[in-house]
Design a protein that fits this description.
The chain is mostly helical. It is 66% helix and 4% strand. The protein is built from 22 helices and four strands.
Length: 430
């Protein structure tokens, strides 16, 4: 069965490559859920990304999260990383935390659904997350290839090493959170079709960490919405007692406890699954807000993308609170995280004070704060150089105004504020 999954992943990625190369100059969009919310909902444009999301949603209603287990590019990267680790004898141990529920939902709602629905409802809205310090010109200094390689390493190999075979699917992926709703209603599921001997081979082999044995013996099927329909459990079963089968949805939910159905907590409390996990659930009160905050700040400061930012955040949060890792390593990571947060706070304060003085036309007071931002911000942000150009122009320092105008012009040449500054400088010089 697994060779067919490999073939499926290869075929999909060949098609994606053809799409990128063939339509590189066309506005068809990326294979990304953002395309659906931004283009389809926000602008009414049906492109490649929108079609993929629509297909994923409706196929999940029938086949469960088949898309995640057989077609997703992040799933393919994780499987590749797992194969590489197995070849070198590296055995990551899965971590169990409620982060696997809250972090994907947070990413989904705060970065995809809320801003894009806001745009759809009010096309003139300038809504943005208050902590976000990211600007489009950052991409000029962090090319897509760099972001792609970093995402490949972090969300593939590092996530798998620290968080398990499907660590990204469990802890980070907002698309998986989005597909939890239709998968709960899917007609195809892994079902008990023979005599189970409770050998727990299906549970041991599950890459998501579902207690398959418990669920099929309790409900006669896998009900956990994290199931990606990879069918590893059906292949691993020595008694051939499991099958991926259709059942009439009207009769499919008899005798199921609603608490188990919606939250699937019983599976993680079962003794046989506990042995697979480093349990950090009792520390989630600290882990979850830390990961959310750190991910926000990381994405805001470096504009490296939500997946990469929160992938880093999930790893760092779970490492800090994992006592199976040496105290020195955990303390070092914690110190780094605290310094980073303080640095981000320093930049945010300078930004707010600079804008405050600028808007109140106190240009001489705004200049030191803007200079702090351009001196310490990890990327060159053209917007701040434009602000400085205006400030120096208003206090009569023409040379510094021209200097910052030229810098801003290189970074964001077509920005309306830059063009306006150009006109003002021309008038002043004349």
């Amino acid at each position: 069965m697994q060779k067919y999954r490999v073939i499926s992943f290869i075929v999909v990625h060949v098609l994606i490559l053809i799409h990128v190369l063939w339509f590189k100059n066309a506005v068809l969009g990326s294979f990304d859920f953002q395309e659906f919310f931004d283009r389809f909902i926000g602008m009414g444009i049906l492109n490649a990304g929108s079609i993929m999301v629509i297909f994923a949603f409706f196929s999940t209603l029938i086949f469960g999260r088949f898309f995640c287990g057989w077609l997703c590019h992040f799933g393919a990267v994780q499987e590749l990383a797992w194969w590489v680790f197995s070849k070198f004898g590296i055995k990551p141990k899965t971590i169990n935390s409620r982060l696997l529920t809250f972090l994907p939902l947070f990413i989904l709602f705060n970065f995809y659904i809320i801003p894009n629905l806001s745009k759809a409802l009010n096309p003139n809205s300038d809504w943005q997350l208050s902590l976000n310090l990211a600007y489009p010109e950052v991409w000029a200094f962090l090319p897509g290839a760099v972001i792609g390689i970093l995402t490949f390493i972090v969300d593939g190999f590092l996530i798998v090493y620290f968080l398990g075979r499907k660590g990204f699917c469990r802890f980070v992926c907002p698309w998986g959170a989005f597909l939890k709703i239709p998968t709960s209603l899917s007609t195809f599921k892994v079902r008990k079709t023979g005599d189970c001997t409770n050998c727990n081979m299906c549970t041991s082999g599950c890459p998501i960490g579902i207690d398959v044995s418990y669920e099929i013996n309790t409900f006669n099927k896998v009900i956990n919405s994290n199931c990606t329909s990879c069918m590893i459990c059906t292949s691993d079963c020595p008694e051939q007692a499991l099958s991926y089968k259709f059942q009439n949805p009207i009769r499919d939910y008899d005798n199921i406890n609603i608490f188990d159905f919606m939250f699937q907590k019983a599976s993680y409390l079962h003794s046989s699954i506990k042995e697979k996990f480093i349990s950090l659930r009792h520390k989630d009160f600290f882990i979850i807000p830390f990961a959310l905050l750190f991910g926000l700040l990381l994405d805001g400061l470096f504009s490296m993308g939500h997946m990469l930012s929160f992938g880093f955040a999930a790893i760092i949060a779970l490492l800090i609170f994992n006592h199976e890792i040496s105290s020195k390593i955990r303390k070092s990571i914690a110190v780094f995280a605290i310094i980073f947060m303080c640095f981000n706070g320093f930049l945010k304060y300078s930004q707010s004070m600079a804008i405050y003085y600028f808007e109140n036309q106190k240009f001489s007071q705004a200049i030191p704060h803007f200079k702090k931002i351009i001196d310490y911000y990890p990327m060159k942000i053209g917007k701040y150089h434009a602000y400085l150009g205006v400030c120096y122009l208003n206090i009569g320092d023409l040379n510094n105004s021209i200097k910052h105008y030229k810098t801003a012009k290189k970074i964001i040449p077509n920005d309306k504020n830059i063009l306006q500054l150009e006109v003002l400088l021309g008038r002043r010089q004349n």
